[in-house]
Amino acid sequence: MRSKVKFIEIAAMAMTSLSAVASEAWPSRPIRLVVGYPAGGPTDIIARLAGQELSKELGQPVVVENKGGGNGLIAAKHVTTQKPDGYTLMLSTDSVQTRAPALYRSLNYDPVADFTPIAKFAKQGVMMVVNPNVPAQNVKEFIAYAKQHPGKLNYGATYGASSHFGGALFDVLNDVDMTAINYPGGNQPITDLVGGVVQVGFFTESTVAQFIKAGKLKALAAAGSERSRLFPQIPTLQEAGAAKMDVAPWFGIVAPAKTPPEVVGKLAAAVAKIASSQVFSDALTPLGAMPIKGSTPAKFSEEIKSDVVYWKKFVVDNKFPVEN
To answer: Domain 126-222 is in which class?
Structure first.
């Protein structure tokens, strides 16, 4: 009997040892970072910067794999079907992870249950900009003007993007009534804003920086929790006297559900180190982006859950059209 017990103990020790070796072995081959947007765009560029830094930290190549289409939904579904072994990751964005459940009646993935959150690592600044002909030099003047002309100011928006949520959220929080003019995407809403077809926009800094510098657009405020690093002289909406608001698109790393805790821990540590790197921070600045420090798997997970609830309620309360 004692020999049998001894055998079981030895077997258990061997299994524990093998498990430890397997854990220590990760990563032993290249890692895929799936991006739900085409190559060459801002999201892809940020993904490649993160991939380069992750490669250095993990000692294995991190290969960016673009699976564009469906506003990132195709890539998200693909990642949920992959093995949870740490060798397939996804560049997570607010639009796919937290807003899509509010904007689509049926998703073929669960943004909470189907993923293991690792950490956020960066966000892009969003600027509230107006055509120079709008008679307002600051946010307070703009709000007063908008209240005097309900429904007369148009903001350019792409459905479900920060430009869309930015305008809608500004309306609700500041009790004004602007009209959303929907665009399929691309640069057309900014071109129309410069041309005066629409009067207001909430766009990422990198897409409007050249027009602000050239005086073709007036930047009234940063629509985030921090001032822009490209335009530090411009206040946030809250500093400018409007309601606090943050529609800055964020970027994070998620893995398929049930990814081993040991792998999650190593990935989270690597992402945290990248977010604290001055080299990475400096590389983000020309993109109108900044690092997010202090994100953890637990914190990221709770933020995803709470944001999904928030945006679902916001879409219902404000009667956004919902897609199938």
So the answer is: alpha beta
